[in-house]
Amino acid sequence: MTVSIIIAVKTWQNNLEECINKCRELDFSDFEILILPDTTPKGLFPSSLNQSQNKGTVPIRIIPTGSVSPAYKRDLALSYAKGEILALLDDDAYPHQGWLKCALENFKDQDIAAVGGPAITPQGDNFKQRASGLVYSSSLASGKFTYRYLPKRRRYVDDYPSCNFLVRKSIMQELGGFKTNFWPGEDTKLCLDIIHKLGKKIIYDPRVLVCHHRRPLFLPHLKQVASYALHRGYFVKKLPETSLRISYFLPSILLIGLFLGAVMSLFLIPIKIMFFLWIFLYIFLVLISSISKELRLIPYVSVGIILTHFIYGIYFLKGLLSRRLFEEK
User: Fold this and answer.
1) Domain limits at 324?
2) pLDDT 10s digits, 39-75
3) DSSP-derived pairing of the beta strands 155-157 and 60-62
4) Run of H or E including 168
5) For the chain, how are helix, strand and coil distributed in percent, rounded to 5?
6) Do 92 and 54 reside in the same domain of the chain?
7) Does 60 share its domain with 181?
8) In terms of CB atoms within 10 Å, which of 52, 130, 208, 217 comes out highest?
């Protein structure tokens, strides 16, 4: 099978060169790299790209797209891609050496339309990025979805992030691409189309591994969480097949419970006792989930989990109550 690696970007970023170079070190030869920036890059980008090209013979093409969404960029790549498999990769992520070889083993099954794998936090990330990664990989923050951030058992999935996602080109052509301006959330729609429209399967394989640079705690991390939550809350109404699930409501339930508990504890002593016991238990669970070999990370991760719960809970409700999101206007 041949592969087209598709990297949708806005402009040149330092992580992109790392991504390209790691792709060129893959234990696989029959692939190309398509880079889709907003505009034709100048200066450092072509220089770095040419240096990279001297290392081997992997075809690299730059396709300027204008200022459009990542989903639109990837849909545009359909008309340029020569590979039978489209490997979607974020510019701030890079693959492990066996990434493509392990992924392609799954496509021997014709019922498998797409393959996803974990996006782990690189060891070289700075302190605040590693703290963000530990928040995401915590079961208290991500629940049953920790397999997206850590290698877990192989399984079928019905919703998977597009930062590490490989799909048959024929499937994308049959669907007409993502066909959405949602971002994030374009991957949720695509997965739903694959499973419900085409009756195909998506597999999670822990060997299909990439490293994904995190947004550091606190503000950049929380902005990302807010965007995820806003779209997930809206998708409860828009795409209920995979979004109308109790696990997505839990942070909002926690938030509402804290508010009601605090108000009621002002008037009822038994409620006040139960409320403080519940707060103690919550903080205890947060601390347990924040345990790390690097002790100085523990307070950052603890606060990060709590703030992640609060921000997710607020923006999930905002999405749930929204009539339309800005991508649809």
Assistant:
1) 220-328
2) 987 754 444 454 444 345 789 999 999 999 999 999 9
3) unpaired
4) strand 164-168
5) 50, 15, 35
6) yes
7) yes
8) 208
